[in-house]
From TrEMBL:
Residues covered by the ABC transporter domain: 2-221
Name of the gene this protein is made from: ftsE
Protein's UniProt name: Cell division ATP-binding protein FtsE
Pfam families: ABC_tran
Family membership noted in the UniProt record: Belongs to the ABC transporter superfamily.
CC terms in the record's Gene Ontology section: plasma membrane
UniProt record, GO biological process: cell division
Compartments (UniProt record): Cell inner membrane; Cell membrane
Molecular function terms, GO-annotated: ATP binding; ATP hydrolysis activity; transmembrane transporter activity
Keywords, in A-Z order: ATP-binding, Cell cycle, Cell division, Cell membrane, Membrane, Nucleotide-binding
Keyword Nucleotide-binding included in the entry's annotation: yes
Length: 222
């Protein structure tokens, strides 16, 4: 699903975000990427989204080479990826339904197809009864679940999350991780960047550890 082969990212100011990183992720895997602030977690996610290009090395995602991807190919790449952000970036003047429907409207799907898929995504995050509400009427944990529903509504093969539990208390964070596990069980590859080692340890999943742009660990969280 994902192959990093000696991928390095050097920023124009000379700063090295990642040093020759190599690892593979199989389809259907669940893994964490961890490390201190500045370790390179966000750089890794931005490379996977083709928001940045590697300076050297080869980066493959679902068979596509992201080191040489053209701008015209990027929309097709992004259709295979869902992204969950820490601050979920919901539109507060729209309903929950509209927020989740947005990616499908952009793809130009028919209204009945959108209704079917939004219904399924909201069911997956246990928010079917909140479709007509505004995100502002929901709790923080529920808002994050709307963000997850929006990220999976177009049925991506890969779900990326950047500190998805950063704003949540431990109980809610564990609940959100359960939602990610459910999504993974259905076959979606899940990659979560997080610095919450206590939470990761409870999950017993693969963990890549970055330190100053280098991979210093790859194995089940201890
Ligand atoms: N656009 C940029 N220009 C120059 N340097 C950058 C840029 N983006 C990131 N860096 C540098 O690359 C390194 C890795 O940054 P990155 O944001 O990937 O870390 P991170 O692990 O995601 O940290 P955080 O948890 O704080 O988001 C840092 O030293 C950072 O200063």
């Amino acid at each position: 699903m994902i192959r990093f082969e000696q991928v390095a990212k050097r920023y124009p100011n000379g700063h090295v975000g990642l040093h020759e990183l190599s690892f593979r992720v199989r389809p259907g895997e669940f893994l964490f990427v961890t490390g201190h602030s500045g370790a390179g977690k966000s750089t890794l996610l931005r490379l996977l989204l083709a928001m940045e290009r590697p300076t050297s090395g080869k980066l493959l995602l679902a068979g596509q080479d992201l080191s040489t991807i053209t701008n015209a190919q990027i929309p097709f790449l992004r259709r295979q990826i869902g992204v969950v952000f820490q601050n979920h970036q919901l539109l507060f003047d729209r309903t929950v339904y509209d927020n989740v429907a947005l990616p499908l409207q952009i793809l130009g799907l028919s209204k009945p197809e959108i209704a079917k898929r939004v219904g399924a995504a909201l069911e997956r995050v246990s928010l079917s009864d909140k479709a007509a509400q505004a995100p502002g009427d929901l709790s923080t944990g529920q808002q994050q679940r709307v963000g997850i529903a929006r990220a999976i509504v177009h049925r991506p093969a890969l779900l990326l999350a950047d500190e998805p539990t950063g704003n949540l208390d431990p109980r809610l964070a564990a609940e959100i991780m359960g939602v990610f596990e459910d999504i993974n069980q259905l076959g979606t590859t899940v990659l979560i960047a997080s610095h919450d080692l206590a939470l990761i340890a409870r999950m017993r999943q693969r963990m890549l550890t970055l330190q100053r742009g280098r991979l210093i660990g790859d194995g089940e969280a201890a």
